[in-house]
Design a protein that fits this description.
alpha/beta, TIM Barrel, 8-stranded parallel β-sheet, 11 helices, disordered N terminus, binds zinc ion
Length: 311
């Protein structure tokens, strides 16, 4: 979930990427106009990942429908329009910052229903609460070891450098399940159990073999990127704030393109606004492809392979 405070507004000074985006659209439109009578367009598609439908979205939730099935069907309809082939989802039919074991089991049952609805496109992350270690470990086994889920989602119940996370992270690493940790630096105060990217860096140093994802890049992404730069087992999720000039470029420069992953936080955020961060960034095609698909694929390949799922 986003849990966002006032996002950075796009100022006039940030308008260059948008202008570039518009100019790419107009080049594509001109190419389409050319193709009317005389065959295919002369210019290559400026957004080949959309055209091919090969994008992976690492961060999504249920919601926007009366049932898990209705929610995921609706989100996939919009994903189709934007070339998004695979999505990762966790909880969201209701919101609970500090779920009881009964509550997180119910939310994970919702996700299992969504995965069953489109198993070739929807990958589930199990929602846990480290305040309930034994029950969380049991749930991890139920949904990931013995079920179809492929990762862990942690939200705002406990700061992620809390020692209660250690057995959960160890178990997830054994199962090759990446952990997606919501992180935020708010303009005002964070929620009581809300982690920052610095908390995640602490956890990452204790668990160098775990694959960790820094949700929202901490919202204050300039600090977030720096906070996790030295912990190589942490990747960032681009979701959350509005498109802001320079975010993706800085992430690629400081972390390398392999640690930057596209995620939208749908349905709370639109696919289009979050994809715009990647398309408007001043990047060659190769890192853009890593961010939009290949990094998520590489992160999930080991656990999907262990489950016999070919991607
Ligand atoms: Zn989220």
């Amino acid at each position: 979930m986003g849990l966002e405070d006032s996002p950075r507004a796009m100022s006039l000074g940030d308008s260059l990427p948008r202008r570039e985006l518009l100019s790419r659209f107009s080049r594509a439109a001109a190419a389409m106009a050319l193709c009317g009578a005389s065959g295919p367009p002369a210019q290559a598609d400026p957004f080949p990942e959309i055209a091919k439908g090969e994008i992976w979205d690492l961060h999504g939730h249920l919601g926007g429908g009366r049932t898990p099935e209705e929610s995921i069907t609706r989100s996939l309809k919009y994903a189709d329009r934007m070339g998004i082939r695979r999505v990762v989802v966790s909880m969201g039919m209701s919101f609970s910052y500090d779920p009881s074991p009964e509550e997180f089991r119910r939310q994970n049952d919702d996700v299992l229903r969504a995965v069953r609805q489109a198993p070739d496109r929807v990958f589930g992350f199990v929602y846990l609460n480290p305040k309930h270690v034994a029950e969380s470990l049991k749930e991890l086994d139920r949904c990931v070891r013995d079920g179809p889920m492929v990762g862990v989602k942690l939200w705002v119940a406990v700061h992620c450098n809390d020692r209660r996370l250690d057995p959960i992270v160890r178990r997830a690493a054994e199962l090759k399940a990446p952990i997606f940790q919501h992180t935020y630096w708010r303009t005002g105060e964070n929620l009581p159990g809300e982690s920052t990217p610095a908390d995640l860096a602490d956890l990452a140093r204790r668990h160098p073999n775990a694959a960790l994802i820094c949700g929202h890049t901490g919202n204050d992404w300039e600090r977030g990127i720096r906070a996790i730069r030295a912990t190589k087992n942490v990747s960032i999720d681009l979701s959350g704030c509005d498109p802001t000039a320079g975010m993706v470029e800085m992430a690629v420069r400081e972390l390398g393109p392999e640690r930057v992953i596209y995620g939208s936080d749908f349905p709370g955020r639109s696919f289009a606004s979050q994809l715009a961060k990647v398309y408007s960034a001043d990047l060659p095609d190769a890192p853009r492809r890593l961010i939009l698909a290949e990094n998520a694929r590489r992160l999930l390949r080991p656990i999907l392979a262990a489950k016999g799922i070919r991607i």
